[in-house]
Design goal:
Protein name: Oleoyl-ACP hydrolase
Structural class: alpha/beta
CATH superfamily: Alpha/Beta hydrolase fold, catalytic domain
Keywords: Hydrolase, Plasmid
CATH architecture: 3-Layer(aba) Sandwich
Largest sheet: 7 strands, mixed
Number of domains: 1
Family: Belongs to the thioesterase family.
Number of helices: 9
Shape: globular
CATH topology: Rossmann fold
Strand order of the largest sheet: 1-3-2-4-5-6-7
Distance between the termini: 42 Å
Organism: Streptomyces incarnatus
GO molecular function: hydrolase activity
Order of helices and strands: EEHEHEHEHHHEHEHH
Length: 252
């Protein structure tokens, strides 16, 4: 199991990627990847929204160019580290978007910023149950074959990665750490957010029912909206155009 307490050892700036820099954009969108994912997942979002939106994608330790750094297997520790990394972004309106595990990280980052008096323009949570909708899941404790089976079921990892034993061996530690982060996450009671919150989900997602997605409304006193798209856990691959349209509408 990867270590979970060495986030501050990363080089400054290692957390944030800008694939289409838009320094003069009136708005910023910070994107948080799913479990096992990386910042490059959001390249299409950066391409589509620039130059009107400055898109920042988060690179967690333990993958791609950060593969030699210890993984962080706690949503709360990830959020603690990320607040320090992106606090300088609030010189203009900032929205947060997270998919799957990334939705929990984005939510906890939003909570920490609101505690500092910095309210995000919008929080987008995708493919994830509300923090109050807890399931007892322990996939992170299973052996490698069972873990790969679950990844395949969700279709969340490139098939080329699953087919290449060497690449898969390199990726499994970060995937397992992310599964542990998501499955052991427990919501700490506190005041609801004040920012608008939009939940997005696929209508055939095995990990999120519509009621579990709708329960995100409990976590913000601001306006709430639920967007349901055709598809499973990674509905946003096939529904990219519709998802981007929804983002643009809220970011305006």
């Amino acid at each position: 199991m990867a270590a979970s307490t060495t986030s501050t050892h990363a080089a400054r700036g290692a957390w944030v990627r800008r694939f289409r820099p838009a320094p003069d954009a009136p708005h910023r969108l910070v994107c948080f990847p799913h479990g096992g994912g990386s910042a490059s997942f959001f390249v299409p979002v950066a391409r589509a929204l620039a130059p009107g939106v400055d898109v920042l994608a988060i690179q967690y330790p333990g993958r791609q160019d950060r593969r030699h750094e210890p993984c962080i297997d706690s949503v709360h520790l990830l959020a603690d580290a990320l607040v320090e990394e992106v606090r300088g972004c609030f010189d203009r309106p900032v929205s947060l978007f997270g998919h799957s595990m990334g939705a929990l990280v984005a939510y906890e980052v939003a909570r920490r910023f609101e505690q500092r008096g910095q309210v995000p323009h919008q929080l987008f949570v995708s493919g994830q149950r509300a923090p109050s909708a807890v399931r007892d899941e322990r996939v992170h404790l299973l052996d490698d074959d069972a873990l790969i089976e679950d990844i395949t079921r969700l279709s969340g990892t490139d098939s080329q990665v699953l087919a290449d034993p060497e690449i898969l061996r390199m990726a499994l530690p970060s995937i397992r750490a992310d599964y542990r982060a998501a499955e052991t996450y427990r919501h700490v009671p506190g005041p609801p957010l004040s920012c608008p919150l939009t939940a997005l989900t696929g209508d055939d997602d095995p990990g999120v029912t519509l009621d579990e997605a709708r329960a995100w409304a409990e976590h913000s006193a601001g306006p709430f909206d639920l967007k349901v798209f055709p598809g499973g856990h990674f509905y946003l691959d096939a529904q990219q155009s519709a998802v981007l349209t929804a983002l643009r509408a809220r970011l305006r």
